[in-house]
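Appendix B. Worked example

We walk through a single record from start to finish. Start with the input: the chain for Do family serine endopeptidase, Thauera sinica, length 387.
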Amino acid sequence: MRRLWLIFAQAVTISVAVLFVLNTLKPEWLREAAPGTVVAVREAPAGDGSTMPAAGSYAVAAQRSLPAVVHIVTSRTAGGPRHPLLDDPVFRHFFGDRFNGDQGQRASGLGSGVIVSADGFILTNNHVVESADAMEIALNDGRKFGARLVGRDPETDLAVLKIVADAELPSITFADASGLHVGDVVLAIGNPFGVGQTVTMGIVSALGRSQLGINTFENYIQTDAAINPGNSGGALVDSEGHLVGINTAIYSRSGGSLGIGFAIPVSIVRNVLEQIVARGEVTRGWVGVEIQDITPELAESFGLQDATGALIAGVLRNSPADRAGIRPGDVLVAIGDREITDPRSMLDFVAALEPGRKARFRMRRGAEAVEVDVEIGRRPTPATPAR
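Next comes the structure step. The output line below is what the pipeline stores for this chain.
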């Protein structure tokens, strides 16, 4: 009996030793031998970095446009009220100018921009760079450059900067302005809250948004792609990575994204860019009138058959409109061959006219049809708002 017990004990010891060795060196043998003890999963083959993105991915569009989107850090002197003692001769005799450096603190701002040419022209929002004393541009690859302001256009909230690099810079490609439709997928690229370059995805919610009170000239793309503070001036690109707009504003009650963002379309962006690069400023047509919508009540009081056109509510003295004989109460219905349906279309069309040329204005003055030739003037530059 003792011999049998020794044989049993040795057999158990050898079996435990074998299991230990197998579990250490070949654990998969034990898993195959005991089905059901682990979950059998199928793993995708390890990629080498050259595999195509998964279906539905926008990685190619992001990779194409990310290098052209930059981070903009601005700084300016936020001066406070100067203490009267600093101008006192006795005080300055004893303490010198040691307190002069405390007159103003440096305030910094964050935003985004888009490189639009290989030689270093960058588009951004005017509100990102206005009042800035210095600007630093950080590229996607970590390089940093000082930038100079080429020109800005407060009425569309666009500005053009310039940096100088030793080699060609990555630049974005412009999409066809007429190729964007409601429902198209778009990506918003920028640096929200300064966390780093970020890509968000959404669709085009609406086109031609205006009368928002953001800028003088408005024709916004509305998107639900998340846009937050710091995204301003960044790129809105299509599913191919081509620029369709410059992210500009959000509708928000909290300061964060609520899914209603606005971008300036490339049709406006291209025009402003070309004018600023060529002349350092944007030139627009102007006639010097105040216009307003024609409500049904106004149409009835003026004896109009319908509410189409733009009502001339006021005429600036000695302006092109005044010299041509346009009067308050006239209803503008056409400029040349272009019908005017509302004040917004009138403002946009006149702004697009070349200063110095003449245009025929067709109006209704009571029951009478009136035509006058107006020499288009140059729109005055708006004053920079105080900060």
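Two observations about the output. The domain at 177-279 is CATH 2.40.10.10 (Thrombin, subunit H). The radius of gyration is 33 Å.
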